[in-house]
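#lab-general

N.A. 3:47 PM
ok so I finally got the sequence cleaned up, no stray characters, all 206 residues accounted for. can someone with queue access submit it? mine expired

B.Y. 3:52 PM
send it over

N.A. 3:53 PM
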Amino acid sequence: MDKREARDHVRHERTELLAFLETLTSEEWEAESLCTGWRVRDVVAHVVAYDQFAPGLGWHFVRSGFSVDRVNLRTAAAWSSTNTDDLLGRLRANVIPGGITRLIGWRVALQDAVIHQQDVRRPLGRPRSIVPERVVGVLECLVDPPRLTGLRSRAGGLRVEATDIGWVWGDGPLVSGKGEAIVMALAGRESVVDELTGPGVARLRR
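B.Y. 4:20 PM
back already:
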């Protein structure tokens, strides 16, 4: 997809995430997500933390040694006590995000929005049907991540097939399953690997 299409998908995905979050109870906001050590509210805090160039954000990067993982932990912790109405208000004002989120590109912003919505929905038992074009866009980003994000692909040396959307990538031992499950597995959500099949699954799990 081109930049304009990716931007539109980001807007729709974030709008859907907002509508979903508005249905959650106070107990669900405190539930564990698929992100280890993060509650639902921590995931949402992470999603909105980079949407504007807030004071102190640069200092978080410096104190974290410019490590993406460490700065994610610091920013989420800084926002973790924010009340849910304020988190929703921040997301509502940024369904088309700005700040660092826009700087890293619409493809990565789409990846972030799709994966983190699933990080929340899966543990709460609230499945959904994701537009196939979004799943393909995220898969393409995961197998060939932009250098700016500091990420690397977990799909190297594997043949990956999304059986429900006709997407195939790579060469090597086969890993197959539904596109959404492949997205979450390539994003490092180990519990989802059990939903995939093929001789390459053990390698992917490692």
